[in-house]
């Protein structure tokens, strides 16, 4: 009992001393110089004792005190020239070793030159040549030993101080990158990660060590190897350097790592770090975006630049996920002027701050305006006379628009009509509309409103005298956008679950916001007018699989730590999305990720009249069902799913709409003029 109490007391004393040492600030430079000169004096004293014990005659021109002062003055001069004191001792590197070596070598050369010069005039030496060589070696050795001692002591105290709190990780790969990464983590006392070994899929080199860390072979049955390594080294996770592995390779390793009960961390390549000391800040749990198998997007930057540089550009919905990213990417192409327009004040302010900080030379203005206010929009068009319009303003949440169809039609359809008509009236070169795969055979009001907007833009292109090129881009879900499934799942996992999935078999296409906007800009340069460009979204992803993987990426177990609940399809939601309507076909373009759809065109007068009547309806006191009837009449492929409007599709004939504003909407389904295949 007494022995245990004594050990506890000693451990507390050690911990107190250790924490005191670690909490100290860096030594001031004058103190480093004093310590170094003291070590040099000690080296000189040792040299004198050694010389006295060997049969070497030492000159007696100066006293020992005078000799020591002389050599310390020379030493101080060389320290100043080579700035040996400028580094932080606990973080000494090869550069510091190089400086000390230069200083020590310079001291030897200067003293030897001075010694021989003095001897040539007086016939006597001040120092023995052997003594100077011995002193140089001893002083260099002591200076190096001091730095190594401080560095290793600090590292040891840092490790012991936080060895229980740091995550023990296995660094994947044995390359210069992974070795440098491990070295940085070991040398960083504030890093929450502690490398314990390197993992290699090669059978070579597994008996070697690097920085006293073993290289462990992990090939063949990777899962079993990882389980064995986890138990032996008490490892908690595996660190991947993101850019060194392909997505399939990364997926394979991640699955095996999860199966072994280990967490997965990811970091960028070192050249993407701001500074080496920030390495631990760049390490984070692997994100689901990193595991989606998509080929990298390549765009023709020169073509886009020639299309946008020197142009006056409008981005509607510029504070949203897509519109905001479009504005950021367009800014890099140096337009003559850019107007970012949105009706969301806070989000628009954030975009304003971003552009001001990152593009200080960009001529731009942020306009707080609503695309449904025709007078306000006409004033903006009249003021700037835009060359290119990117129309991203839209309401996008399916259940919300299902319950508020008036607002969905007002923004998505009527707003598009106002902006597109103004672009035509004011002679814009190009109008690029951002649409969605939900407009294809729509099963909800939101998709139908976007399809109606597509139909109007395509019909407007056919109107005689129209010179504006109207281009529509159509793609699926974007990763990380406002209200998308990934941030939603992250928040649910953070709160301890449950994670809610609407159906076990529901699948969706995904693309990053950056990728989608790159393709929008590229497609905008390709259109000749009237086309719908469809993006290759890669492989569809099963949402349930995504939820399970995101839970694993958080270091938790699906169903055990975080429950997953199947809640049923939401209003207007379908199991899978399509990219082409009936009657449409797709052809390839010169860009492998962009296809052009053959479109079904409608008569402009018919579409315009239909929208006039629909506009009257959404501003009248009528039931929502009457509005949806009219929308279904305009968009005949609109078939509601999981919605209160399903019964409207069971009617044998669409309901006639009475005369509105002096015009009657035809009761028959709109007939296409002809099908046209885009070039």
UniProtKB/TrEMBL annotation:
InterPro entries to which the protein is assigned, alphabetical: NAD(P)-bd_dom_sf (IPR036291), Polysac_CapD-like (IPR003869), Polysaccharide_Synthase-Rel (IPR051203)
The Polysaccharide biosynthesis protein CapD-like domain, residue ranges: 313-596
Membrane-spanning residues: 30-52, 64-85, 97-114, 126-149
Entry superkingdom: Bacteria
Keywords per UniProt: Membrane, Transmembrane, Transmembrane helix
Any Pfam family matching the protein: Polysacc_synt_2
Family: Belongs to the polysaccharide synthase family.
Official protein name in the record: Nucleoside-diphosphate sugar epimerase/dehydratase
